[in-house]
Design brief:
127 residues; alpha+beta; D-Maltodextrin-Binding Protein, domain 2; two-stranded antiparallel sheet; 13% strand; globular
Length: 127
């Protein structure tokens, strides 16, 4: 069951997640804002770009979150709005997995700056 459903059913007191599609009856309080970051292995063409465009990204395969996740919906929507094709190299759950398979060269990925910092501090970053 999704956390929104659990909140509405009284099974959870709070959930930490994005604001996307907040159902009626729930209140959103921002905890922090975090920019999305590109994750690419050292030496990858995208790793050398300061501010890659979606057109730059569309030339490469991506490791993306599973279907139905908020991050996946946001990524797909951005490509769709720009009229670009998203090439999926692999679906992966868990940002540490994204970092690992990206580091191994499976494809580029993206994640929030906050999550990437936490993974670096835990020694599980893309590095």
């Amino acid at each position: 069951m999704e956390s929104f459903d659990q909140l509405l059913a009284g099974e959870l007191d709070l959930a930490v997640r994005s604001r996307e599609a907040l159902p009626h009856g729930l209140r959103f309080e921002p905890l922090f804002a975090s920019d999305r970051m590109l994750i690419a292995p050292r030496g990858h063409e995208l790793a050398g770009k300061k501010r890659p465009t979606l057109r730059d990204l569309a030339r490469h395969a991506f490791v993306i979150p599973p279907a139905g996740s908020t991050s996946r919906r946001l990524i797909e929507a951005a490509f769709l709005r720009a009229g670009l094709r998203l090439e999926i190299a692999m679906e992966a759950g868990g940002w540490d997995v994204h970092g690992l398979v990206t580091r191994e060269g499976t494809g580029a990925s993206s994640g929030t700056a906050a999550v990437m910092r936490l993974l670096e501090e835990a020694g599980r970053g893309v590095g």
